[in-house]
Amino acid sequence: MTASSTSLRNVLLGNRFRRGLLKTVYIYSALFVYAVLFLLPFYWMLNTSLKEPLRVFQIPPDWYPNPVVFRNYLDAWVSDRTDIAAEIPVYNYAKNTAIITVNGVIATTFSSALIAYAFARMDFPGKQAMFLGVISTLMIPFTVLMVPQFILWKNLNWLDTFLPLMVPYWFGSAWNVFLLRQFFMTIPLEYDESARIDGATHWTIFSRLIVPLSKPALGAIGVLAFVFFWNDFLGPLIILSKPQNFTLTMYLANFSVAFVRTTPWHLYMAASLTIISPCLILFFFSQRAFIQGITITDFKR
Amino acid sequence: MAATATAGRAIRKAKAQETITAYLFVAPWIIGFLLFIGGPIIVSFVLSFFRWKVINTPRFIGFDHYAAMFTTDDLFLHSLGVTFRFVLYSVLLGNVIALSLALLLNQRIRGIGVWRTIFYLPAVVSGVAGSVLWAWMYSGELGIFNNLLIAVGLEPQAWLWNEQLVLGSLVAKSLWNIGVPMVIYMAALQGLPQDLYEAADLDNAGEWTKFLSVTLPLISPVIFFNLVMGIISQIQTFAEPYVMTKGGPANATLFLGLHLYENAFHFLKMGYASAMAWIMFLIIFVLTMGQFGLARRWVYYEGQSS
């Protein structure tokens, strides 16, 4: 900021009060522009999903649905489909996703908490090295593991079953172990010590003391896990091949393939919106848990 | 004497007990690591030296796969380049936007919860649903982006069918999902000590100077964290190209993950895909280590002398 432009601004704006006002206007306009950009895709999804089929292909497109066609939601899930998968009721995909998600949330939260407890509260030979092992697996992306794991599932005859999408999560996940360990370490050690004097075992301390005190952190891990499992695509894609085993994300990715002519975008958007709604609802009702889950990390480690 | 010896034995026994209990607690991790991470990685290393198409018996071919990656398979290096460019732009721009939003939200404004919800929301619809939605918005004559361009008198674009443009279109989509780094930046900004700002005010420092010389150094560990996590997650980008472009046009969006997926699960070249996974792992390893090395030069850790 040069001297001349500063003085120009002073001339234009006069006193400090007005300058503060201008800054406020800047901030709110910037936020407003960003908000429009971030919400536009959601609005477009909702708008398209409620349009009359013919009006979806109108150029230029309408900015609001007229008439509003709620029937699209019914059609997206039942009729108008010509593929083999259409023989399978859609609730079946939802059921598959729900099984994998519920198992995943419980499995990863429980097992990660157990492992994190040992790293936060117990002494054992090889602890440092093992914890370093946990941290370093954070770097291994699934893309690297998918081929080796696929070979394992093939040899176990687990392909096209839910087992590969359920069993591994009972063995802790590096990220959750790390986050929960950080959180457990913030709980004062005196609590454990007084419990130990009363003769409590580690299991008692874990289940009666640490877990109840860590409800917010465990909830945070849980909601983030829910969104992960619900949206997971690559995992199910390489494991599941029979249509009756497909998950919702696989159904969505194959959606347009099912139609002979052009993609019925109104139905596609109706299906998308229905599929993301559990995540949206969960987010609206447990925002604090989401925010906390993301920010438990201690950066000044 | 006898009493202390007994006590010593009791303590040793208690310690052994503690060790056993501890191992029971971490057993899931050890078993899981051996079965699902370490074991498969070693098996795939061995397999990378074999030609194996799932149905036949593996045949040893030495380093042929590794050599092929850099010679006969033109698409490997190409997909590496595509992934690098995408990760670079998506992580850098994503962090700029996430940080600027966090800074805006840190300015004592009204309805902070509502704003935060709006900016975080897309993060819960990443993956297939988000990709389908953006493919629709990017579509030719019917897409909202082209119609907005036409409305303001500009030429419509072939967002997903123009080789030059398509990667940029995917980067733009990825910028919609910056909720996680934004929330992390918000938490970091709220934890900053106010006294440094008061000192800067006494020196009549402007907003920009305060940002550069107080805020930025103080949050540099958080920036570092977000960059590392961003790279690790973006390098795995799969659903977006799979759903929106299938790697096209002319392989312009053939990401490493997609190339690996096709080799492994379409062409069933398990040995070759294993070799690729290993190279990918090495790249990520070098990249992350390199970042930690570089971090010493620009990340400021409070209360740390070294």
Which key phrases capture this entry?
heterodimer; A: 301 residues; mainly alpha; MetI-like fold; 69% helix; B: 306 residues; 2 domains; two-stranded antiparallel ribbon; 13 helices; flat
Helix-strand blueprint:
The complex is a heterodimer of chains A (about 300) and B (about 300).
Chain A: H1 3-13, H2 16-49, H3 53-56, H4 71-77, H5 90-121, H6 127-137, H7 142-155, H8 163-166, H9 174-184, H10 189-197, H11 202-213, H12 215-231, H13 234-239, H14 248-254, H15 265-285, H16 287-295
Chain B: H1 2-47, E1 50-51, E2 59-60, H2 64-70, H3 74-105, H4 112-120, H5 128-137, H6 144-151, H7 166-174, H8 179-190, H9 195-202, H10 207-234, H11 239-245, H12 256-266, H13 270-298
Antiparallel strand pairs in B: 1-2
Describe the fold and architecture.
The complex is a heterodimer of chains A (301) and B (306). With 301 residues, chain A is an all-alpha fold. Chain A is built from 16 helices and no strands. In chain A, helix 2 crosses helix 15 (265-285) and helix 5 (90-121) packs antiparallel against helix 12 (215-231). Chain B is mainly α and 306 residues long. Chain B has 2 domains: 2-47, no CATH class; 64-298, MetI-like fold, CATH 1.10.3720.10. Chain B is 71% helix and 1% strand. Chain B has a two-stranded antiparallel sheet. Chains A and B meet through helix 2, helix 5, helix 6, helix 7 and helix 11 of A and helix 1, helix 3, helix 4, helix 5 and helix 6 of B.
